[in-house]
Amino acid sequence: MGEETDGPQQRPRGRRRGQGELEAQVLALLQRASAPTTAGWLQQHLEGDLAYTTVVTILSRLHAKGAVHRNRAGRSYVWLAAADEAGLAALRMRRVLDSGTNRDAVLASFVSTLSPHDEQVLRALLNEAGPQHADARPSTPEG
What we know:
By secondary structure, the protein is mostly helical. Helix content is 53%, strand content 8%. Among the domains are: 61 residues, Orthogonal Bundle (Arc Repressor Mutant, subunit A); 34 residues. Strand 1 and strand 2 form a beta hairpin. Helix 1 packs across helix 3 and helix 2 crosses helix 3. The radius of gyration is 20 Å and the shape is elongated. 10% of the residues are buried.
């Protein structure tokens, strides 16, 4: 079977997780699981000493973002990944775009910071998507 360990690895005291780090850890663990799993199982396999309620909160947040699915199992849920880490980052980016008041300015600012390689990748992806996405763009009233 898998490698045995002496238990969950402990984070050094005083070190706080970065924003989204715990979500990424939960998502990665769900992706490695061979089947839908419980919050209790995740709690046992995550780094650090996390409360069960903390794990459930993270799972609920990921569910609200569309990054995980849940199915009723008795009185609780079993959880499975719906998105990988790249998918989760894309969901975050979409939320930022959707919450901004000036979508064009946000996109322009983002694109202006891309490396030449990232710009090439983005151009290729947009070309692959084709013109159908240009028609789906919401029109803005001229004024």
